[in-house]
């Protein structure tokens, strides 16, 4: 019997988001990191979520630990590195929208090595979730994620992978090679349309889904923003409409989708129903500022769906 629903592996970050008040520019603290966000989103849907990473034994690391404790995310496998640093990022605003700046080089999470993996926790999970960012932050982390995926498959744990492409972290050719090798070992691929177009060189969503199915995964959920989500399996392909809202801030919407999708898929095993649920959760997450604060609970998502 598996004791964990979703185990995420990757890097959490401390967030500082720009706000302007009375002519002053302020930075409000919050939380980020794609797989950490996904774990929190899943926990808010009632899933038993856990995370594996490393944090600096510093003030920011302790803030993130406190977040996971409040949200019910199991952090018993997290490594605290004495003298290590917790990664930080800043959200500013330019003429074309968000401007992201990172201070993550050499972070505690980027120093994770394959030998530090919690193999028993991976085997105890129903789903292992990782992302392109999980592997981009260092060569050791790329190797650790591959080792985690191999152990998951040997243990009967499903693997979910978000292709999250960050070209600030690595060149496109290496990103493409590593990400597609990981997707080929995964059960569920969660690409975003813009990233997938860069990674595959394809334009049409149906061709992108066919490409990822061809790598060997059995479910693709291709998020397309206001155009909805294309869900594909070897037997069926369908576009699940987006839920229109007056968005305030889309930071973390993709991570919310991932967490809600996995949590709902684990309830009934239907990826099409899971995508409809996750589209609603992602829409609600855009109604406030920041990556974590506006993430909805299951009760909020179900109320939103009933009212639609």
UniProtKB/TrEMBL annotation:
CDD domains: KdgK. GO terms for biological process: D-galacturonate catabolic process; D-glucuronate catabolic process; DNA damage response. Signal peptide: none annotated. Keywords: Kinase, Transferase. The keyword Kinase applies. It comes from the Bacteria. GO terms for molecular function: 2-dehydro-3-deoxygluconokinase activity. GO terms for cellular component: cytosol. Residues 30-297 form the Carbohydrate kinase PfkB domain. Belongs to the carbohydrate kinase PfkB family. This is Sugar kinase. It comes from Microvirga thermotolerans.
